[in-house]
Amino acid sequence: MLNFESVSRVYDDGTKAVNNVSLHIKAGEFCVLLGPSGAGKSTLMNMVNGVVEPSSGSINIGDLVLTKQNKSKIQRRIGMIHQQLHLVPRLSVLHNVLAGLLPNVGLLRSLLKSFSSEDQRRACQLLDEVGMEEKHLLRRASDLSGGQQQRVAIARAFIPNPEVVLADEPVASLDPAMSRSVLQSLKTAAQHRGATVICTLHQLDYALEFADRIIALRKGEIFFDGHPSKLDKITQDELYALAQSQPVSLEQEAA
Amino acid sequence: MNSQSEQPRHWREWELHRAVTSKNLVILFFVFIVLSFSAHNTELDKAAVETSKAVLSVVGVGESQVLDGAARFVGKAFPIQISERTPVNRLNEFDRNNLPLFSYIESGEEKDYDALTDTWTVESTEFLVQPIGYLKKVIIKMWETIEMGFWGTIICIMISLPLGILASKNYTPHRFVYSFTRVWLSFHRSLPELIVALILVLMYGFGPIAGVLALAIHTSGVLGKFFADEIENAPPGPQLALSSTGASSFKVLRYAVFPHVYPAWIAYVQYIFERNIRTATVLGIVGAGGIGMELKGRWDVFDYDHVATILLIIFLTVILLEVISQKLRKHAL
User: Fold this and answer.
1) Taking CB atoms and an 8 Å limit, are A99 and B256 in contact across chains?
2) Residue A65 near chain B (CB below 8 Å)
3) Lesser CB count within 10 Å: N end or C end of chain A?
4) Residue A243 pLDDT
5) What is the strand order of the sheet A30-34 is part of?
6) Residues A25-68: pLDDT tens digits?
7) Which helix (H) or strand (E) holds A251?
8) A216, A166 in Cβ contact below 8 A?
9) Alpha helices of B95-207 — where are they, by DSSP H?
10) Rounded distance, CA B205 to CA B213, Å?
């Protein structure tokens, strides 16, 4: 489904953010990327999204190889949940979700904010699925709590029926109970649609609880890849230590 | 190196801050000279002299040109004129038995000036007096002025919205278009309404069209630049999120930028509207329609009592406008 073939990325300042990574991710898998800041998680995600280009190696989704030319084609098959969410604060919850459909909506319809009732129903269904209630539908996104905003962001990522959803630290700013519930919503929404999820996390506990597959990175290289149950005690401790550790230097942070 | 090797001084010997230094005094002296020249150029010295004379004259010492001027206006301005008095023989369709509401007929003398023989003829005639006739006329003119301001603002938005988008760095189709529209907008800004109105009166003739277009041209330069700056300063996050789904830049503009800049735009359009009405009141002086035309006409024939009515209505309108837009602003945000 999503394949990385010996992908590397070297930044202009010489930092090797990702070093010779090969990955084969099956359709419908819930993958969690683990690793300290600067391990290359964000770079890996941004390469799938077309924001960062690999220095060498190739990435393909299904039969589509990621190149500059078909970047927009790829983008339409990917949903993205950003760490800072990037909802439009003054837009209603409904329209924030529908904004995910913009590439497929006609110019006049999008200008007048007149989405078909079919599209609106889909947005409602998704919002219900991620645990939002009807009373929030027409509220401004800025009036919502952090957890609710996160759910709206998930709904927006899923509404164009993407094959792959990239979630960058989706629970970074939430308390543990809310984090679990949001991750559960994310997982359910993905399962219902058979979408592949790649999600970066800082907390090993959540990864163990939700992931179908854990991919741990260290200094741009994979040092664990497999089902959470295969994670032995030693690797677990090592992962805990990594998750606790602070970024070693500013360059690594930037990477 | 040097400073390290020196012995630190005792705090009693530390150099203290001095507010008045010889350098400051020299600078002040030169500033004073330059400002004095400039003040003389703008006749500020004369203003000081004349104002002092006026003050002295009030307490009974000497005479004042300033006070005379004021007295000439005030003496004729009050009581203000709100009725309309027309000689009956000048009315085309006059029906003695069917007078307009509240009006009555009054007999009096009409003075007529004959420029050829330089003589005044006085004949007694009847006048139709409409008690609030002139006030009504001024209010209708004021309404026309408000309409001028309104349409000036609408046309201004129609010009400045597309130009504003083209002149914003992140949504302009090309760097060249960006620079061109920026220059174009500042060109619009640099044209004062009165001068544009003068030219437009030549082109379109006397009347409100010239005023409306003059307002639109000047204020579109102001509003367009503001639109563009607001678009440039919109938070990049939501724009990135939407454009990464593959949405075109027009749609990103519509969904991630417009909702954000909307309140600021509304507030600014409101300000432009208010300002346009205030400006529209004077545009009539060059013949571009509105209440200014009436004002200029009455001023030129020294009908200061009529002028006083016009000024009162303008004053009341501006206050009313301010109150309404304050309320609206609270409502919109």
Assistant:
1) yes
2) no
3) N
4) 62
5) A78-81, A164-167, A196-200, A30-34, A213-218, A221-226
6) 888 899 998 887 778 888 888 888 877 888 888 888 888 888 87
7) helix A250-254
8) no
9) 133-166, 175-190, 193-204
10) 12
How many angstroms separate the CA atoms of B11 and B134, rounded?
80
- Name the A residues in 126-185 with CB < 8 Å from any B CB: 156, 160
Pick B127 or B148 by higher pLDDT: B148
Q: Return the closest-CA partner of residue A193 out of A161, A153, A157.
A: A161
Confidence of residue A250 (pLDDT cuts 50, 70, 90): very low
Alpha-carbon gap, residue B169 to A178, rounded angstroms: 40
Q: Which of A160, A46, A109 is nearest to B255 (CA)?
A: A109
What pLDDT is recorded for position B153?
Answer: 95
Rg, chain B, Cα only: 30
Q: What span, in angstroms and rounded, lies between the C-alpha atoms of B84 and B97? A: 19
Nearest by CB to residue B240, choosing from A86, A89, A105, is A86
- B122-159: string of b/e by CB count within 10 Å (b at 16+)? eeeeebbbbeebbbebbbebbebbbbbbbbbbebbbeb
Query: How much is the pLDDT for B148?
Result: 92
Q: Are A148 and A179 in contact (CB under 8 A)?
A: no
Q: Would you place residue A254 in the very low, low, confident or very high pLDDT band (cuts 50, 70, 90)?
A: very low
Give the separation between CA B258 and CA B262, rounded to whole angstroms.
Answer: 6
Interface of B with A (CB under 8 A): 237-238, 240-242, 244-248, 250-252, 254-256, 259-260, 262-263
Cβ of A99 within 8 Å of Cβ of B255? The answer is: yes
Q: Output the pTM of the full model.
A: 0.77
> Residues A74-119: pLDDT tens digits?
888 888 888 887 899 888 999 999 998 888 888 888 888 888 888 9
SS3 state at B170: coil
